Fold each of these.
Amino acid sequence: NKNKFDFEAAVYNTNHPLIPRGGVAIHDLNIRHSVIDLFIGAWRLYRILKKNNIKIIHAHHYYPGIIAWLACLFYTNCQIIIGRHYHNELYITTKGLKLRLDLFFENLVNQKATYIISPSTIIIDLLIAQGIKSDKIILIPYGFDFSDVKYTKIESQEIQELKHELGLTNYYLVGNFSRHHPIKGQLYLLQSFKIFLQTCASARLVMIGDGPYRNVIEKYIAENELEEYVKIMGWKNEVYKYMSIMDIIVH
């Protein structure tokens, strides 16, 4: 029962456009993705946990899990719940010593966690193969309410207005909605789209999202003279509107 708990959130920074603005107290750790920021973030999180007498912390994904683990090394009056939705990302994006270090710290976090929440059985199988006891893993599949407004297709007039606003009228639109990261395969998409242009010159690729791989994507676009054909738009709210204007979505 959510009414039995007080909820607060700690985020990397509050400048992110997708951070919720109402109903929950937001603590800004004001950090980036770097080793030193892991320790800075952990110290700031520790102070928040101690000051507010937090009993449970839910850390979602790899680096937030490490930050929570570091904070709870000193603030022991708290249980860690880990949300784990990535599968074999570490094995694909790293190798050698870095992979061994990543897996070592991941294992420390997993062992410290009271429970690990997974959305799929394939992630559970991987966790068990890594030595995590099955009784600390909870399966909670992703829930989608398709009656929600964000899944509603917008009307044709609004589609045309949005296309006009974006300067994309009369083009065949290919959409990609994803974090910019090697695991998402966006360079493969760009390579394929370049070939696709040979038979569909009116095509335009619209990429909505952001992430640490954006500079690599932008470099490829520039080196292959695709600036006219690829539009990178960053993070967007109301993504369903942008999905509605696409002729095809590549995910």
Amino acid sequence: VIYVSATPGDYTVTYTAALTSGAQATATRTVHVVENFDNFAGNAETLPVLMYHYVYAEDDLPEKEDANYLLDTKLAVQLQYLVDNNYYYPSYAEVRAFAQGTHTLPARSVVLTFDDGSEGFLTYAIPLLENHKIPATSFVICSDSDIQDKLSNYASPYVDFQSHSYDLHRAGTSG
């Protein structure tokens, strides 16, 4: 249980988890406490969601490139912008409460998602998210034959893997 002061302001909360083997992981998050929802001038009225698909590197050009493809260096610039401008990345519990009108979010809140769990996301985007300490959700296609390997080999404290679909991208289907 974590207790945060009832006094309005910004507080840094550090979470630590330890295994009996001695392995330990730590994550830090800033929590913004408001006096009440009605007087929170910084409250976001809408919540932007940045949805990405395929990330690639200059030396690993895709065979076909379209609007769904993003060069890793361009993603790095976008992530740095978010960091430099003090954006807040709400958890899905916060997003749900915000949508239900029972929770406020800072004006500079944004959600990042990556569809399909592509190799480029796994190889290029995850290290960038980790480097910038920005959490994101990857909506993976659960019928992929290598889905268990993806979830195990690319686990990251900054990536939440969720189901995009089971068989939506199968050839011949219309979704």
